[in-house]
Design brief:
The complex is a heterodimer of chains A (324) and B (199).
Chain A: H1 7-17, E1 26-31, E2 36-41, E3 47-52, E4 57-62, E5 68-73, E6 78-83, E7 89-93, E8 99-104, E9 110-115, E10 120-125, E11 130-136, E12 141-146, E13 152-157, E14 162-167, E15 173-178, E16 183-188, E17 194-199, E18 204-209, E19 215-220, E20 236-238, E21 244-248, E22 254-259, E23 265-270, E24 275-280, E25 286-291, E26 296-301, E27 306-312, E28 317-323
Antiparallel strand pairs in A: 1-2, 1-28, 2-3, 4-5, 5-6, 6-7, 8-9, 9-10, 10-11, 12-13, 13-14, 14-15, 16-17, 17-18, 18-19, 20-21, 21-22, 22-23, 24-25, 25-26, 26-27
Chain B: H1 3-19, H2 59-66, H3 73-84, H4 89-141, H5 148-194
Helix pairs in contact in B: 1-4, 2-4, 3-5, 4-5
Chain lengths: 324, 199
């Protein structure tokens, strides 16, 4: 039996293996086709372990204390709670059918789960393991973005082409905003004044203003030589200072770097195949991308805007989060 | 939702989709968005090829060996490494981009054939869906006490619905085939790029 990897041991391992300054961060990746979660050491980019979870794991989210990982196992119709010290699935949360994606409310307690095949957002109390609310939304709910103050949850629905702005406390739908075709992720600016929605088929981003809930601007992409159909914006991550938005462009195999003030695309970085989701390291110096067709993780140096490494993980990597 | 209800709902939804009227791309049944061709710009980080790959020494043979669909990725990348190993830097710089152009062209040809198969399959699936709906209509029009005629109709309906659901499963699998081809091409691109000289 391998020893459970405590944060202390992980840190010791990181120190032992790293040539440069130690990074204790843990990178966690869900592998949709393997039914596993891969844990990598951020310092060495070595795979520490591969943990079996439920079927078709996609969305993953960390508990506020970083001890647990919530894993949406869509084909098992549950959200699993993976203990990151014992590496065991310790609980299942009742989360409706086919959970695809989950976002934790800043209160650390309410997990908002998108149920892809029954057009619901399920709100689960992660401590008590009970369903608090079921909110009917558009067809094939998908992305989930919670405002920094915790007041609003934005849910996108793939087929309805809308972003639904939901009051987190009541579940009431405040606004429905028409966005690009097959919207995926929703990400808020740190000041909560606007949010971004990516559209996989539309090939665009929509910027929505808080309060007026107006689509204020759109961002388009073009990569010379790449068919426009291959440009499929999905995962997004803001830089620490909020000046840049990184956008995964699916089978264009690019991460776009968008200036959040001018909305100009500064750069397209070539990464692995079908880049889907993104996560920033805690210090903001690195961006990790899951590449679902090449089965690897690309590592981007965010200061130099260079792709520095590619690390093989499981089959069809989908979600990625980083624990400090 | 219990499992049976869910299956019924899934069938109804799939039937509705399969029978849906003309959409921008009605023949394309896959969840993956239709992308007409694989592009060098999405995969190749090296210099552009110069010349015709079929005319370059050894390149056509390499492409012929690794491009067929049945060749596993590991076998193909090993062949690329073996091809590059004896070459001097100048030859690598010249021949490896040509080899990429060759596998790209051949892969796109195979992919085109797969896409056409998927479209044909989708058209047949639409016909199957229409058949199921027609039988549903007949069932509704047949009184419950119609005896053998009704039993026979019920059996035909059950058989048609099963054929449809089985075909849906096959279709999801078929939709993965172009993705696998794309994945192998990416692995070839990376193996070729890794063998380029470092300057």
């Amino acid at each position: 039996m391998p020893l459970p990897l405590t944060p202390l041991r992980a840190a010791a391992l990181a120190l032992a293996l790293a040539a440069g300054p130690a990074r204790a961060e843990l990178v966690l990746v869900s592998n949709e086709k393997d039914n596993t979660v891969t844990a990598l050491d951020g310092a060495t980019l070595r795979v520490l372990r591969t943990v079996p979870v439920g079927e078709r794991p996609r969305g993953i989210a960390l508990s506020r204390d970083g001890r647990h990982l919530y894993v949406c196992a869509g084909d098992s119709d549950r959200v699993e709670v993976l203990d990151l010290e014992t590496w065991q699935v310790v609980r299942h949360l009742p989360a409706g059918s086919d959970p695809e994606l989950a976002a934790l409310h800043p209160d650390g307690r309410r997990l908002f789960v998108a149920n892809e095949d029954d057009n619901m957002v399920t709100v689960v109390d992660v401590e008590r393991g009970v369903v608090l609310n079921e909110i009917p939304v558009g067809v094939e709910p998908e992305g989930m973005g919670i405002s920094p103050d915790g007041r609003y949850v934005v849910n996108t629905s793939e087929t309805t082409n809308m972003a639904h702005v939901i009051e987190a406390d009541t579940g009431a739908v405040t606004a429905n905003v028409l966005v690009g075709a097959r919207p995926r992720a929703a990400v808020w600016d740190a000041d909560g004044k606007r949010f971004w929605v990516s559209a996989e088929i539309g090939g665009t981003l929509t910027v929505v203003e808080t309060g007026t809930w107006r689509a204020a601007a759109t961002v388009s992409f073009a990569v010379p030589g790449v068919p426009p159909e291959a440009i499929q914006p999905v995962g997004m991550a803001l830089s620490r200072d909020g000046a840049r938005l990184f956008v995964a462009l699916g089978p264009a195999n690019r991460v776009a770097v968008v200036d959040t003030r001018s909305l100009a695309v500064e750069r397209y970085l070539l990464v692995g195949q079908r880049v889907w989701n993104l996560a920033l390291s805690p210090d903001g110096s690195r961006l990790y991308t899951t590449n679902g067709v090449s089965n690897d993780l690309s590592v981007i140096d965010t200061a130099g805007l260079r792709v520095v490494r590619s690390v093989p993980v499981g089959q069809a990597p989908w979600g990625v989060v980083v624990r400090p | 939702m219990n499992a049976r209800l869910r299956r019924t709902a899934a069938l109804a939804a799939a039937l509705a989709l399969a029978a849906a009227g003309p959409s921008p791309d009605a023949d394309w049944p896959c969840v993956q968005r239709f992308v007409p061709r694989l592009a060098a710009a999405a995969l190749w980080p090296g210099p552009p090829p110069e010349g015709e790959w079929r005319a370059a020494e050894g390149v056509a043979a390499l492409v012929g060996r690794i491009a067929p669909r049945a060749v596993p990725e590991e076998e193909g990348t090993a062949a690329i490494e073996a091809f590059a190993a004896p070459l001097d830097p100048a030859s690598r710089r010249r021949l490896l981009p040509l080899a990429f152009a060759g596998v790209l062209e051949e892969t796109n040809k195979q992919r085109d054939a797969l896409l056409e198969q998927i479209r044909r399959f989708a058209r047949r699936q639409r016909d199957l869906a229409e058949g199921v709906r027609r039988l549903e209509g007949e069932l509704r029009a047949t009184p419950a006490d119609a005896g053998a005629a009704r039993t026979e109709l019920e059996q035909r309906h059950a058989f048609a619905a099963k054929s449809f659901t089985d075909a849906e499963r096959t279709m999801r699998y078929a939709c993965e085939a172009p993705v696998r081809l794309e994945g192998r091409l990416g692995a070839y691109a990376r193996a070729l790029a890794a063998a380029l000289p470092n300057d």
